[in-house]
Write a structure and sequence with these properties.
Nuclear Transport Factor 2, Chain: A; 34% helix; 5 helices; alpha+beta; six-stranded mixed sheet
Length: 234
């Protein structure tokens, strides 16, 4: 009787051990699935953030654009080689409409004929292991109606965003924006004839930190990638 009881106890102990191992394995699997789900939700939230930025650019909605950015002192914006805007005040200065649209200097809102379509496509988003920051690379396709040379002109262009995002109080925000034009040209001329047409000189913005040496088409310049090759790892 005692030997039978001892055998039953051992079997129960083995069974409990297996159940405990399975419980730990299940908890690990659940944790991994939760992490993957959170990562997927983060990526979707960042995609929505970037797309919202593009929609607000269409009519240069200053307040909505500024609201997408972190209010940290190390927040930055850099567009081509125009200098780096730093901190919340730098973000505000970057989106002063009267400066951006020099022909209408002093206006707070975009006139009806204004058009600044910037469509983010081919996005690659990488969230940091701790889930607190992320990086993204996007093409920006541009179609616009902007004043150049004293007249309203139809412009087309292409560029690349390299973005840093930060999660604050559960909400993803733009932390660092870096944009490099590939070309920006009058529609009737095209990028081979006129690869780049300069923006009007700034009238409102204060001097900023000197920008990077970014060169548009046809320089052959390759905007640095934030990620390694997804296959080779190099």
């Amino acid at each position: 009787m005692a030997e039978d009881l001892e055998a039953k106890v051992k079997k129960l102990e083995q069974k409990l051990k297996k159940l405990e191992e399975k419980r730990k394995s299940d908890e690990k699997t659940i944790g991994e699935l939760e992490t993957r789900m959170t990562r997927a939700e983060d990526i979707e939230a960042i995609k929505k953030l970037q797309r919202a930025y593009g929609f607000y650019l269409e009519h240069w909605q200053e307040d909505d654009l500024i609201a997408l950015f972190s209010t940290r002192e190390d927040v930055t914006i850099e567009i081509n080689d125009g200098g780096e805007f730093r901190g919340p005040e730098g973000v505000r200065q970057c989106y002063i409409f009267g400066d951006h649209y020099t022909a209408y200097s002093g206006q707070k809102t975009a006139p009806p004929e204004y058009l600044h379509l910037m469509v983010p496509i081919s996005g690659i988003v990488d969230v940091a292991p701790d889930g607190k920051t992320a990086q993204g690379r996007w093409y920006g396709t541009f179609h616009g109606a902007l004043p150049r040379g004293g007249q309203l002109r139809a412009l087309i262009g292409y560029g690349i965003w390299e973005m840093d995002y930060i999660k604050e109080d559960g909400v993803w925000k733009i932390w660092k924006l870096l944009f490099c034009d590939i070309f920006s040209t009058p529609l009737e001329e095209g990028w081979v004839k006129t690869p780049f047409i300069n923006n009007p000189p700034a009238k409102v913005r204060p001097p900023q930190v000197r920008g990077k040496d970014i060169r548009p088409y046809p320089s052959g310049y390759i905007f640095p990638y934030h990620y390694k090759n997804p296959v080779s790892g190099k």
